[in-house]
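In response to the reviewer comment on reproducibility (Comment 2.3), we provide here a single inverse folding case reported in full, input and output, so that an independent group could reproduce the run without further information from us. The structure tokens appear first.
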């Protein structure tokens, strides 16, 4: 059983305003790969399979690199199976960490029921965990576990998290609750997206570069409807900015630590089965979508994008695709592959759910989870100039 060091981190609050417009340049694409200037070849390696069946996972999975070639994984909202647990895969075997919501709640001296909202890791493979639980009231806390250590520390305890959430304009009182997702940057700074049941949403940045954690937050427009479940996916760009996929408002937001969120890419013609967007070191974008036929990638010049239609399941047409967008002038050269065809080469069938992409600091490859079947892959792209 792991030890827990209950020492609160002092949080200084620096709250900034909301930004809703940008002028980020033109956009375009090569939608059908006509006359491509490059050839792009994806390579996928199946690391582990059938996690869903082996661990009775009933909802979508989250995976995060351990910095040594392996990964942590957990499920979200696993109400119909045994309690959530964080599992480590490394050296071709699964290792139970013993980390469950009830273990954390008991270690903090509370009584009640809770669940993990999210996990993430930094470039060194240190593990970050958000726990959301009910005791006498709703509580949130963030912990971290240094790689190779048996001690778990507070990143932000329940009092600090309550102060952060309230200062960001969200409500945790009465029957209201808050759900969160996070991304940790290579520099060990933390992005937090939080939404309450009154349809308020805030984007929060925790800068760990000084003696104290500095917190900035941006509360999104109160005139818009925000609903957290299944609508937001988080990724990072190559500089540590947050890329937030917001299907409700047809927008990918780029969130800068200094200026906050600004509309970045329009999701016009995209369905709601959109993944997170991840930016590689060369500026290329990697993402996936199920049931999509023709799309364009366009920058947003002002305001929001176009609301995407709800296209899901058996009522949808098109293909499940993995996308690679290569910067080209003031636009993008778009490459895509049918995801079902890719996984079929590894004797997997059906429609995979590629929703989150994690850069593995161990080798720089992309850690990719198929949430439908519990398969975890390593993905990389080989890009070469086309020969004419």
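Designed residues, in position order:
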């Amino acid at each position: 059983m792991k030890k827990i060091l209950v020492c609160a981190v002092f949080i200084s609050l620096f709250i900034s305003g909301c930004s809703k417009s940008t002028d980020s340049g033109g956009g375009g694409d090569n939608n059908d790969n006509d006359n491509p200037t490059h050839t792009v070849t994806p390579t996928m390696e199946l690391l582990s399979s059938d996690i869903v069946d082996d661990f009775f996972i009933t909802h979508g999975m989250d995976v995060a690199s351990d910095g040594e070639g392996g990964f942590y994984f957990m499920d979200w909202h696993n109400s119909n199976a045994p309690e959530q647990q964080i599992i480590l895969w490394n050296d071709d075997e699964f290792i139970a960490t013993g980390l469950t919501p009830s273990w954390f709640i008991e270690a903090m001296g509370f009584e009640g029921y809770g669940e993990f909202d999210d996990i993430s890791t930094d470039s060194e493979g240190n593990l970050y965990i958000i726990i959301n639980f009910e005791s006498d009231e709703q509580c949130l806390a963030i912990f971290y576990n240094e790689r190779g250590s048996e001690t778990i520390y507070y990143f932000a305890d329940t009092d600090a998290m309550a102060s952060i959430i309230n200062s960001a304009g969200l409500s945790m009182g009465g029957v209201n609750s808050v759900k969160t997702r996070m991304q940790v940057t290579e520099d060990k700074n933390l992005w937090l997206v939080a939404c309450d049941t009154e349809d308020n949403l805030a984007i929060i940045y925790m800068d760990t570069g000084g003696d104290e954690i500095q917190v900035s937050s941006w509360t999104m427009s109160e005139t818009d409807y925000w609903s957290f479940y299944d609508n937001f996916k988080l990724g990072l760009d190559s500089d540590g900015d947050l890329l937030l996929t917001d299907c409700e408002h047809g927008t990918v937001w780029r969130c800068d630590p200094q200026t906050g969120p600004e509309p970045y890419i329009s999701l016009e013609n995209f369905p709601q089965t959109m993944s997170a967007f991840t930016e590689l070191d060369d500026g290329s974008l990697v993402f996936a979508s199920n049931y999509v036929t023709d799309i364009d990638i366009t920058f947003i010049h002002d305001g929001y994008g176009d609301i995407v239609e709800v296209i899901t399941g058996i009522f949808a047409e098109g293909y499940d695709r993995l996308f690679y967008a290569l910067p080209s002038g003031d636009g993008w050269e778009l490459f895509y592959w049918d995801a079902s065809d890719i996984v079929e080469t590894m004797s997997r069938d059906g429609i995979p759910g590629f929703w989150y992409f994690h850069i593995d600091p161990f080798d720089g490859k992309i850690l990719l989870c198929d949430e439908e079947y519990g398969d975890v892959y390593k993905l990389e792209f080989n890009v070469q100039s086309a020969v004419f």
